[in-house]
């Protein structure tokens, strides 16, 4: 996936978009499938951006989770994490757990092969990217403190 800096030609709104390739962006732009998220204008073009080149240490460093309790975290950050956890609890309470079969079940629902319903489960990063490439919405849920018990 490639992240492009984009801008609206009508009002100059700046935003970004993710595409499989430069050709994917060009194809979507040619079919007028792109629009400004602020004003809805279909006159969207790539903006000047600097390349994202990772330094060796950045490529090798693992991604560290952020703790949102104590340890000097700003109150608004702690509140944001609490809200995300509340949302995860709501999704779990109102959805069917499908385990490691999440990607396959999401596809079956998307393509009308089984009943439409809310699901959650487990999927690898590659599985989620593949779902997104097919136009299937999939979002990660934050871990909950009770998961550790």
The residue-averaged pLDDT reads 82
Strand order of the largest sheet: 2-1-3
Radius of gyration from the alpha-carbon trace, in angstroms: 19 Å
Total E-strand runs? 5
Task: Determine the N-to-C terminus distance.
Answer: 36 Å
Helix content: 25-40%
- Sheet with most strands: 3 strands, antiparallel
The poorly predicted ranges are 58-64
Number of domains: 2
Return the string of H and E elements: EEHEHHEHEH
Count of discrete alpha- or pi-helical segments spanning 4 or more residues: 5
Strand content: 5-15%
Backbone shape: globular
Structure class: alpha+beta
Pfam families: DUF1178 (PF06676)
InterPro entries: DUF1178
Walkthrough of the structure:
The chain is an alpha+beta fold and 149 residues long. It folds into two domains: 2-46; 64-148, no CATH class. Helix content is 35%, strand content 13%. It is built from five helices and five strands. The strands form two sheets. It has a three-stranded antiparallel sheet. A two-stranded parallel ribbon has the order 4-5. Helix 4 (102-110) links the parallel strand 4 and strand 5 (119-120). The radius of gyration is 19 Å and the shape is globular.
């Amino acid at each position: 996936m490639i992240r492009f800096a984009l801008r609206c030609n009508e009002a100059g709104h700046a935003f970004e978009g993710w595409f499989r390739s430069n050709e994917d962006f060009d194809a979507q732009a040619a079919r007028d499938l792109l629009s400004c998220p602020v004003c809805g204008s279909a006159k969207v073009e790539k903006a000047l951006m600097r390349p994202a080149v990772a330094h060796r240490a950045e490529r090798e460093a693992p991604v560290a989770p952020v703790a949102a309790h104590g340890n000097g975290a700003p109150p608004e950050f702690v509140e944001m994490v609490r809200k995300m956890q509340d949302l995860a609890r709501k999704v779990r309470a109102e959805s069917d757990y499908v385990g490691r079969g999440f990607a396959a079940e999401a596809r079956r629902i998307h393509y009308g092969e089984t009943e439409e319903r809310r699901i959650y489960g487990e999927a690898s990063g590659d599985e989620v990217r593949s779902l997104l490439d097919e136009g299937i919405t999939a979002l990660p849920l934050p871990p909950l403190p009770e998961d550790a018990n």
